[in-house]
Structure formats: C-alpha cells, structure tokens
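Lecture 7 notes. Example A: sequence first, then its structure tokens.
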Amino acid sequence: MKNKIILILTILILLASCEYEPIYNNSKIKDIRFEFIEMEGDQQINKLIINNLKRNQKKLYSDIYKIKIKSKFNKVVLAKDKFGSPTDYKLSVTSNFGVENEQKKLSLVLNEEFIYKNLQENYDQSNYENTIKKNLAEQISEKLRTKLLTN
C-alpha cells in the first residue's frame, strides 16, 4: 500500500514539474476556426467530419485553418457462410486533408476501420452501418483536431 502511494505521489510531482498540460485543456482549441474550401468523395462522411469540427468552434478566433477534404468509404466482405451469404464486413473510411493557415501547410491521410458481423434484418443493417459511419467520422475529426493542436 505504501509503495502505491509513493508511486502515485512521484508521478504527480513529476507531471507537475514538467509542465504537463492535457491537449483538450488548452485554450488554443477555442481560438481555432475551420474554413472548408474544397470537398471531394463521400459527401455523407465529409458532412459528418465538418459538423464534428465546427461543433466546438467559437465566434472569436485567432487562427483560421483552410481545409480541403477528400474522403473515401469502403465496405468489404471479409467472410461468407457455406451458402455464399456474407457474414463479416469491414467498413473503412480514408480521408485526405490539405490544411493550411498563416504559419503552416500540412497534408494528412487519416484512416479508420471497423469490422462487424452481418445482421439478419436489412433495416437494422443499414442503421448499424450509418451509426458506424458517424463514429468513424467522429474519430477522424478528433484525430485531425489533435494533429492540428500538437503540430
């Protein structure tokens, strides 16, 4: 028990002394504005990414990032049963970003994948796929935001 307390105190002291600051606790998040100048590829994915990035935007900003998006959505059958019906799918979203502001110019490729089993009902299947698309787009937008804040 004493070892755990000593370890926790040591970690806290080291983190406090090295000026550790969480990424999302940074005030820079509030000072960013995204301007989307070009969109290609899957429009549904692009709109989801844009909405996720604009969600935390403030009206007062100091940095404007101009972003070009090119997204691609793929649905691949991974496995089939003995009758030839698909049992497993892989959904993947690949987004190419061209980002520029006054100080820097970046080109990023972000990819997210999800593997799932086939559902019996087509209606449930399409709803589940739409939910997965939303989640993948949210993960990509969070990765992009993190890259912009740390570079």
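Example B, a different protein, same format:
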Amino acid sequence: MMESVMIVGGGPVGLFLAAELALAGVTPLVVERLTEPDPRKGEDDRGITARTMRTLAARGLADATTALAEAAVRRLARLADPSLVDTPKDLPALLESLGMADVKGDFAMLPLVDRNGTMTDLSPPLMVLQGEFEEILACRVAELGVPVRRGVEVTAVAPGDDRVTVTLADGSEIETAWLVGCDGGRSTVRRCVGFDFPGTDPSMVARIAVADIDLAHGFQRLPTGMLAVAPPPAPSMTIEFDPDPTRDGELTAAEFEASLRRVSGTGVTVREIAAPTRITDNARQTSTYRRGRVLLAGDAAHVHSPIGGQGLNLGLQDAANLGWKLGLVAGGRAPESLLDTYTRERHPVGAEVLRNSRAETALLRTDPQIEALRALLAELPTQRHLVELMNGLHIRYEPGEHPLTGTFVDDPHALELLRAGRGLLLGGHLHETAAAWADRITTAGGEDGVLVRPDGYIAWAGTDPDGLRAALIRWFGP
C-alpha cells in the first residue's frame, strides 16, 4: 500500500509536521534513523521565541512548553548557584543574578537589559531541553495515531511523476505520494534528490564541554576570543574566530584544552571532559524547498549558527506553514499549486534568519570596532527592532489590499479556535458564503470578516462575499 505522506526524521520538526498533517486529515508515516532519541541532543538547550509560542498556543501546547522552560531555569539556577534564594523567572534574569548578563549576546535577548518595564510587552525567549520538548510532541503524535518507526534508515530516494520510491538500509522499499525531508543539516533526502545547498563556510567555532577548569568562573570577552567557565556539571565554552577547517570527529579533551589556553592566555590543564560539542556558524540554504513530490523542512532546508536560538523556531514554523497545505493537497481537497506558496513564503524568512545569524556572529568578535558597534546596538529603539526581528514578530506573508492580510492573528480566543488545525472565519454575516468549506473551516462570530489560515496567518479580511469566496478557493481548494 502506498503511503500518502512519508516524513524522514523524527525530531521536533518532523513530529510537529506529523501532528499538523494528522489534524488536516492525513496520517503520515514517520521514519527515524535512530532507535532512541539522541541523549546528547536531548540535553541541548533550545530557545522558543514569542512567535513560536503563539503557534504552540494555537495547538494547545503553550502551557506544557512554558512549564518545561520554567523547570529548566530552576535546574540551571540550582546548578549554577545552590545559594540562590529566589529562582529567576527566565534565562536572562538568571544570567543577571549570576553576574553574567553580558553572556546574553544574541539579538533575541537584547531588550531584557532594560528592567524598567519599558519593553515588558516583548516576552523573553523561553529555554527548554530538546529531549523534553520532543516528548511533548511525541505524545501529541501518539494521541493522533501517527505511526513512528525508529531504527529505519533511508539510503536512496527516487522521485517519480505520481509517487516517490524510498529505499531503506535493509533493502526494502516504501512508496509514498509525498515525501518530506526533516532529517537535519546532513539530510539524506536533500542529497538524494539533488537539492542545492549554497552558503558560507564557518568564520567561528565554539567548543563546549563539561570540565573541571582551574580558571575564574564567569564570562569574558577577550582579544583572543570569548570564554565562559562554569563549575561541573554545567558546561564551559570557548569561541574562536577564523578557525581551521572544522573537524568531523568528536571534540577531545586535548582540543578543548588547547582552545582554552589560546583564549585565556594561560597554561590551564584539562584531563577529561563530558558532553563535548563543537558548533560553527556554517550557514547554508537550499534555493527551493520543493522539487516535485519531495519537500524539505527545518535544518534539511537551512542551517546556521545556533547562536540566537533560531534553528528550532525556524523549523517549527516551516512545519506549521507546510502541514495544513500538504494535508489539503494529499487529501485531494486542494490543487498542488498550493504547495508553491511554501517556498514562496518560507524561503525569504529562512534567508533573513541566515543574514541575522551572520550579523550576530560578527558582533561576537572582540575587536574595538565591533565593541563600538555593540554599544550602538544597545540603544533601546534598536533593541526593540532587533528583538521583533529575532522573535519573528515582523513576519508577514503576501500582503493584500487589507492591512491585516498576511499578518499573524494574535487574539487569544482566535488562537484557541485554531486548535483543531482548521481554518477560521470570523464574521457571522459571511458564514453562508463559507458553507461549502464547512469541512475545512470553523466559523465564529465577529463584526469584521477575517479568514485565518490553520497556521494563524490571515488569508483575507473585508466585507465582500466575492472576495472571501476567492480567498477560500485559493487557500482551501474549491
């Protein structure tokens, strides 16, 4: 039997996409190479921005995510300083309480240096452990009856006119009408199908590990790089610029020691390390997110420095944009042309994140010219613009005649009405016009006519029934 949709990759992006498809009435097959979630990634911290939190709120997942974030800050607080009496409410506050406020060098946290309430309408990014967040998504996928097959490795992909044939490591084949690669920065799907992946090579390397280091604890910006030292089991980090070509092997104690010595200018010794990680600002993006019946989402479509916490958010927003569209197309209720809007809407957002990531990396440098630029960016008007940028609050898809078209609906009641993954029409006087789309649209009262897509973006606003009908056909099929 041919699958309707097959998702390669069972991480957060693949799981969220699977849930979106299930809500749209299409049950996908998810395959994941690993037999169990990667324990190293499970302990990784991941930032959740304001826009993503609103997307999660539209699916009833915001409260659980907030609880994870609060628990993560409490754990960090106890880890970093058991003597803390009051647990800070968020990561920036924790860093300030530990005297490490300057470590929050990415744009997403900039406004939180202001504690006079001027910018309290812009929430700080939340931090969660990837493994715990994945568990929330895995539970949702299980509730929706989506099969997830672990220990299944894809080795070849052969796209056809009406199906895609996927070959597995054991030699067996799976045929699917649609295939989505959510299999990370080294995507097998992307490589097999021949997507390009242009971009820029690394200009910095961060080495992170848990180690007992005989250096002063805290964060320092030095002429030789950046240094963050913490007592075990918290990790320590170095950042150096203009690195040698990135090594593929795991970070070793000798390599970490050498980096610590270069940055600190001392003869510090490192005998053993735990949880070693090496990250760079390698930034790449495929020029299209779709080739025929094969699509890409998340790191399979774009990679960049994790500084700024944009990666998970960008991938989840890809999935939110694609899921309902692919569900309508795979379910035979909308034409394939609807999928053309996926690249058209998401590629510019990904390109902007890559530009911002490169700018953030440049601002990490410690020479006098960059220090002057950092001081300039600390001005509050600039901070507000940057935090809106990094939180995705400025994103607008295909603006129309009405100023609301293409913007995200922020009304809490509207977000609650989106939880079923259907479109939403506000405006009682227009309900009759939308009657033919009753299987795809939820209707609710309201003075103004507003058509909201399942991903929370406004597809149309106005009073003209003909305009509404055209928008319904365009976004939800005839």
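Note on Example B: The chain has three domains: 3-63+129-199+284-390, 204-280, 412-476. The first strand starts at residue 3 and ends at 8.
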